[in-house]
Amino acid sequence: MLYRRLRALLLAAGLAAVAVPAAAQSPTDGPLPPVEDLVHYFDTIVFGSEFGPDYASTVIAKWPGDTLTVSLEQRATEKHLSFVSTHLATLARLTGKKFSGTKTPESAAIRVLFLRRAEMAAIEGPNIDPRAIREAAAAGGCYFMSWKQPESRIVKAIVVVNVERDPALINSCLLEELTQSLGLPNDSDAMRPSIFSDRDNLYELPPHDAILVRTLYDPRMQAGLPRAEALEVARTIISELARPARQPTSRGRGG
To answer: N or C: which terminal CB in the chain sees fewer CB atoms within 10 Å?
Structure first.
């Protein structure tokens, strides 16, 4: 069953990650934008909303606990499973969370639904606004919804994917929606390439996006922090993450 394969792939990815040198895993490899630009980008992605100020977060919201269960549903295939497990392994390394497949979708923290385009606007359930679903599904790509209780605590998310799209586009949108479901909900074209930009189709997180994820799930970034306080904490964390690695000193022996 797919949930068993997901659990096995995530376990294998976690074990493989341990064997990779820390430098190879670093999201800060390569040139980075200035710290203040990254702080502003964090502000835009975490506290902004393309749907207007009424939908914007006013405090830091993130998932509690150590492990998030994930279900793959409807028309999911082995290829989709491979995409999801790869992206969740990346997000696990950046957040410190563990992801585990489950065969009981009703209890899953994150449900990933692979549907035909005609089915994407027909999601039903408690606390689901049909009008909002229709608007999100109109573009025919993919979208996510999340629920908070209270405002600082994400308790559930649903990712909806158009299974009729090209596999490369499905792969890219899975990375985008899974990442955004962790508490980084907004889109922006301010820093590209980025998974938060609808103009880019990416299969890996670029360094500046990875820093945003790490910043949000740094223990110092406490759930419930108001925006102004959160940005001060973000500035400290981002300054550390963006600091160039110190080069080893080379010493030769005298002849």
So the answer is: C
CATH number, domain containing residue 43? 3.40.390.10
Q: Which two tokens stand for residue 198?
A: 């609808």
How far apart CA 80 and CA 63 sit, in angstroms, is 24
Residue 70 falls within a domain, yes or no? yes
Around Cβ 253, how many Cβ atoms within 10 Å?
A: 4
Give how many domains the chain has, as a whole number.
Answer: 1
Across the beta sheet with 67-74, what order do the strands follow?
Answer: 98-101, 67-74, 110-115, 154-162, 142-148
Query: Residue 221 is part of which domain span?
Result: 2-13+34-241
Residue 217 placed within a domain: yes
Beta strands in 89-217 (DSSP E): 98-101, 110-115, 142-148, 154-162
Q: Let me know if residue 255 belongs to a domain.
A: no
pLDDT tens digits, one per residue of 117-150: 999 999 888 888 888 889 899 999 999 999 999 9
